[in-house]
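We were asked to recover a plausible sequence for a given structure. The inputs and outputs are reproduced exactly as logged, with field labels preserved.

PROBLEM: sequence recovery
POSITIONS: 336
GIVEN STRUCTURE:
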């Protein structure tokens, strides 16, 4: 897990150097016929990545995005109506029948279909009208790391080209260097603070909420810790009743409009006696895990999740677990 996470800077650099025509063609089609809405289709870590895409599309392009549960198609046989829309499926393996079936149904319902997928010969790649290769290479660890980061970088590239966002495109070119710096972050404070914990909440907001969800999953599958993710707004609508003295919280605070609120709530919980670990750029007041700021605030989540992956691998080992082989799990999951 740690080795594959550390390879992310090289993976992203290689990804950025390839498939320019595929990205440009998709961007041109979306500008020529702007979709009224977008649906995403994914499971697990890929679904968390899809949440990042949703925030980018909604905040940068003003197009509403919804996550489509595959069971709406595969179990409930819903008659979808998506004329002129865009359906995006995300998967490392491209093997799960429900994701493939849902994307095919979206195409039959009138949507343009695209797949962001790592395995190019997979059923999902074959089902999509447009395929964007993740170029993450083989991923041996059951817990996804480099493929998740590759998904986010590919999504940022799609949105930058679709919206002709030169600043974001330029920032992407500089991202591998910052990812490499992020891989050197001191994760000791996080590992030390959480080594004896059995539960925690993970908070984020906006584009950073996707990495809060991803971190909560990694705590469960690699560390045996019951973690749940909430936006910093939603946690105040009920879940905060769980928080008492020494209750652990991990807060991701990338730069952007949500950062001030994340820091404020972290400070409030800390003042009430909770054990708060704040992840953010160096110099952020109260930061516990300092991660280098990326070339663009929308790319901060990629750097922060990379540092977290290394922390999670170390935490799992400190708890006597093998992060590469979580119990009861397998790399390719096929659901209906």
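RECOVERED SEQUENCE:
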């Amino acid at each position: 897990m740690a080795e594959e996470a550390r390879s992310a800077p090289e993976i992203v650099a290689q990804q950025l150097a390839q498939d320019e025509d595929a990205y440009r063609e998709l961007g041109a089609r979306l500008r020529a016929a702007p979709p009224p809405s977008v649906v995403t289709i994914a499971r697990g870590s890929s679904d968390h990545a899809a949440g990042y895409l949703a925030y980018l599309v909604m905040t940068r392009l003003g197009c509403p995005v919804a996550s489509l549960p595959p069971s709406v198609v595969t179990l409930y046989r819903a008659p979808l109506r998506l004329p002129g829309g865009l359906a995006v499926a995300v998967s490392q393996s491209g093997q799960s029948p429900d994701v493939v079936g849902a994307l095919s149904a979206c195409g039959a319902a009138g949507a343009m279909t695209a797949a962001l997928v790592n395995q190019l010969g997979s059923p999902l790649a074959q089902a999509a009208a447009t395929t964007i290769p993740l170029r993450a290479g083989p991923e041996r660890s059951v817990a996804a790391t480099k493929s998740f980061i590759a998904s986010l970088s590919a999504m940022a590239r799609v949105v930058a080209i679709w919206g002709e966002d030169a600043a974001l495109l330029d920032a992407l070119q500089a991202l591998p260097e910052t990812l490499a710096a992020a891989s050197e972050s001191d994760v000791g404070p996080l590992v030390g603070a959480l080594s004896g914990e059995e539960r925690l909440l993970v908070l984020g907001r906006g584009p950073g909420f996707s990495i809060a969800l991803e971190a909560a999953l990694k705590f469960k599958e690699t560390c045996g810790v019951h973690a749940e993710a909430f936006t910093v707004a939603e946690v105040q609508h009920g879940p905060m009743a769980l928080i008492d003295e020494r209750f652990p919280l991990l807060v991701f605070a990338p730069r952007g409009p949500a950062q001030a609120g994340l820091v404020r709530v972290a400070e409030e919980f800390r003042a009430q006696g909770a054990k708060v670990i704040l992840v953010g750029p160096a110099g952020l007041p109260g930061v516990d895990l300092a991660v280098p700021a990326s070339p663009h605030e929308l790319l901060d989540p990629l750097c922060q999740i990379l540092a977290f992956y290394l922390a999670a691998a170390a935490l799992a080992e400190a708890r006597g677990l093998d992060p590469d082989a979580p119990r009861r799990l397998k790399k390719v999951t096929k659901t209906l």
